[in-house]
Amino acid sequence: MTDARGNARPNGEAPGRLTPGTPCWVSLMVHGFEATEEFYGALFGWEFRPGPEQPGPYVRALLNGHAVAGIGVFPADRRLPVAWTPYFASDDVDATAHTVRSCGGTVGVGPLDAGRAGRLAIGSDPGGAVFGIWQPAGHTGHALTGAPGTPAWNELTTYETTHVAKFYETVFGHDEERTVSADRDHVTLHLDGRPVAAVHGLGNALPRDRGPHWTTYFAVTDTDDAVDRVRRLGGRVLEPPRDGDHGRVAVVADPEGARFAVVEVVG
């Protein structure tokens, strides 16, 4: 697990242009700002500033003055699942949305303009996992990665990797590195030779109540301490801390139920 942006500048500032297919942003849609801001502010040290008001109320989460994530509010009449959504960069969101549809995915939102920040669409792959497409203008994406409190990785959990990985390869130009194992269906997606995301196939073991879904990993200095703070702040622990291939990781949920993972920064 590495910095998936690849072409970010060493000082953490966002580059002027992102390679298409780069994971460039994560966004959360919730039913209320106040409790969500309190939770993530206390957990990660985030501060919040107003973002583009299109397509709806939105704030950017900042860490040490750098944008790291976004949070929007559902319309009052929409009771949709609360979830973190990763966005992939595109030079032409309309063309990318067309490719999504032609490859068996769907586009549920957009393409549409987000003020002067950029242009976006939200789609789903053939398995139903939701992701975003971002064409930057005034806002290029994550301005800081790799530090505690910032997105570190995104992983797709789905039924099988073969066809789904091919979808992302076609839509975003990713290359595949398959784990050779009789009991593990796992693919790492690469861009320009760098790992940017992973796809993990569970077959019939995939929870029916979840279905295929993306999970965003946020870096922390101490996974066990972060899990304790999640509990104290009203969140839930879904998978307790364990030592994995890329460090100590746990899966948790915020008070509104949005799932995410925390992974310990090594070194």
Can you walk through the features of this model?
The chain has 2 domains: 114 residues, 2,3-Dihydroxybiphenyl 1,2-Dioxygenase, domain 1 (Roll), CATH 3.10.180; 114 residues, 2,3-Dihydroxybiphenyl 1,2-Dioxygenase, domain 1 (Roll). It contains 4 helices and 16 strands. The strands form 2 sheets. The protein has an 8-stranded mixed sheet with strand order 2-3-4-1-5-8-7-6, covered by helices on one side. Strand 3 and strand 4 form a beta hairpin. The radius of gyration is 17 Å and the shape is globular. The two termini are 13 Å apart. This is VOC domain-containing protein. InterPro entries: Anthracycline_SecMetBiosynth, Glyas_Bleomycin-R_OHBP_Dase, Glyoxalase_6, VOC_core. It holds the Pfam family Glyoxalase_6.
Gross morphology is: globular
- In CATH, the homologous superfamily of the largest domain goes by the name 2,3-Dihydroxybiphenyl 1,2-Dioxygenase, domain 1
Q: Radius of gyration, Cα only, in angstroms?
A: 17 Å
Instruction: Please give the CATH architecture of the largest domain.
Output: Roll
Q: Strand-residue fraction?
A: 35-45%
Instruction: Report the total helices.
Output: 4
* Level-1 CATH class name of the largest domain: Alpha Beta
Taking pLDDT < 50 over at least 5 consecutive residues as the criterion, the unreliable ranges are: 2-15
Main pleated sheet: 8 strands, mixed
Write down the secondary-structure element order: EHEEEEHEEEEHEEEEHEEE
Helical/strand content category:
alpha+beta
Query: In percent, how helical is the residue content?
Result: 10-25%
Total discrete domains: 2
